[in-house]
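not sure who needs this but someone in the group chat was asking about Cupredoxin-like domain-containing protein from Blastococcus aggregatus so here u go. i didnt clean anything up, its just raw.
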Amino acid sequence: MAELIVSRRTVLLTGLAGVGAMALSACGSDPDESSDDAPADVAVDGTVSIAPDGTQEVTVLVRDDYDFYPAAFTVTTGRVRLSLISEAKELTHNFRFTPGVGPAEIAEEIPILAPGESDTMEFPVDQLGDYQFECSFHVALGQIGTMTVTSA
């Protein structure tokens, strides 16, 4: 009867090949799942709506990249209610207006959102101009946007 001899090297290489195959298969994506598609009920084109109380409302999405959706929107002077929705599966994000950039300081911010969470903040704007906003964790990677305030 022939004796099967397996070296440690063979066992190790076989194990590494299996782990590598599993890692590569995890990188695949489901063709039915598109990260570019927002939920049908969320406008990500910068549309600002007016709530019954007269407050301007805008929704901003974040995902597992370093972008805001939309990256720019325009409001008029008055009150703004901004909702941040995380569609991320892995990354955490926050939202704040970049300190020292813009016509006036906006102190309100949304703290860290875990994947799948959302939060809302409300603030007044009375100075016209461009206000830069950012995810303070990913600003170095370009996760910034602009809110433009025009006259009512």
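also Confidence is low (pLDDT under 50) at residues 11-40. if thats useful
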